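Q: Could you fold this chain for me?
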Amino acid sequence: MDLAPKQSDVADSSALKSTAESRLKNFMKEVTGRALVMMESATQSQHGIATDLVQEAFISLHKSYADKSTEEWYPLFYTILNNKLQDWRRKEARRAQPFSFFRKVTLDDEDLELNDVIDESTPNPFDFIDRAVTADEIKAAISQLPARQQQAFMLRAWEGFDTHTTAEIMNCSEGSVKTHYHRAIQGLRTSLAHLNPNMGGSSE
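A: Sure. Below is the predicted structure, expressed as structure tokens.
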């Protein structure tokens, strides 16, 4: 029995690999900029670390999910990226506190969920502030938010994921996403209020 692969099978496999690589290149072009902004905010403007996290997420995506559709890649990519960010943060926390392995590392202290928080289905980062405030000013303010608030805001307002998908990416409940997003908006309004005297500090 001839166990050698047929020529057509080899050609099909090569074509599929080429197609996946082409799709990945297009996908990377589309999301790299936004992903870097998110990671730079989360790592306190450490561009090298942010770039490494994004690149590692792309490698893992292609290695494990090359056969998925491009639409499926979006939440998968950000889930992978979030996991790599959390791994990096844990390492940094342990490096800063050498004996922290004797206790649970707490990365965020805002896990209590608020009740009846309204989370719009299609948020826009400019909807809750004056249009005169620039994107750079918003990004600078975002970098001052706690990490989970940053993630919730960027995934919801900048990437446009719904609450359910954002919760899956962040590995938390939908209520937590609403809480983090709600508090992020409060924090941004407060930190940007000095740029516009008419901007209120309340999120209501």
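A (continued): Helices lie at 7-42, 47-65, 70-96, 135-142, 147-158, 163-170, 174-192.
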